[in-house]
Write a structure and sequence with these properties.
heterodimer, A: about 110 residues, mainly beta, seven-stranded mixed beta sheet, four-stranded antiparallel beta sheet, about 0% helix, B: about 110 residues
């Protein structure tokens, strides 16, 4: 059973606003990755944090930013929300920076109106 | 760069029938391959993975997949499906820096009684 928890589960924002999504990693995991899953699509890699440092980034603009804290929990921040940012945001933690053993949370469903 | 193509967006089958979900990938480097399952309103759960070694990989819930390097395929199979297997299935590839997964668009498996 996954120990990755995300909050909130659902969120509604309006265009131009800012949003913060939170993720609590599975115990002992020092790496967290964030993915965006638009309706009818597969998840797309946003970025990864390893020991509080960004370790890689996908094709997302700078208004998508993140943080990882000393307890390895994480935040995803999105500024200047656009309608196309509406999606399910998934957080995944792992023991190391390899992509082999990812444990996913249930996601935050963001709707931008 | 890597890419994943899931050849069927929807696969309807009857209970106890066999099923194959098709996945092709492209990559310029050696890859790791994965199948994930997503039940409604949940995150992703790892079904199985190919890292190296035997090309036939067995996973959870009776699923298996075969890595075929010459055909760049990693098709998922189950000899007899259950109603509870109804879900979205995602094929994914990781390679090179190994820190991110590239997903296909998913295949919706619907098992009918």
């Amino acid at each position: 059973e996954t120990g990755v928890t995300q909050s909130p589960t659902h969120l509604i924002k309006t265009r131009g606003q800012q949003v913060t999504l939170r993720c609590s990693s599975q115990s002992g995991h020092n790496t967290v990755s964030w993915y965006q899953q638009a309706l009818g699509q597969g998840p797309q890699f946003i970025f990864q944090y390893y020991r509080e440092e960004e370790n890689g980034r996908g094709n997302f603009p700078p208004r998508f930013s993140g943080l990882q804290f000393p307890n390895y929990s994480s935040e995803l921040n999105v500024n200047a929300l656009e309608l196309d940012d509406s999606a399910l945001y998934l957080c995944a933690s792992s023991l190391d920076i390899g992509g082999e053993k990812l444990f996913f949370g249930s996601g935050t469903q963001l709707s931008v109106l | 760069a890597q890419s994943v193509t899931q050849l069927d967006s929807q696969v309807p089958v009857f209970e106890e029938a066999p099923v194959e979900l098709r996945c092709n990938y492209s990559s310029s480097v050696s890859v790791y391959l994965f199948w994930y399952v997503q039940y409604p309103n949940q995150g992703l759960q790892l079904l199985l993975k190919y890292l190296s070694g035997s090309t036939l990989v067995k996973g959870i819930n009776g699923f298996e997949a075969e890595f075929n390097k010459s055909q760049t395929s990693f098709h998922l199979r189950k000899p007899s499906v259950h109603i509870s297997d109804t879900a979205e299935y995602f094929c994914a590839v990781s390679g090179g820096s190994n820190y991110k997964l590239t997903f296909g668009k998913g295949t919706l498996l619907t098992v009918n009684p």
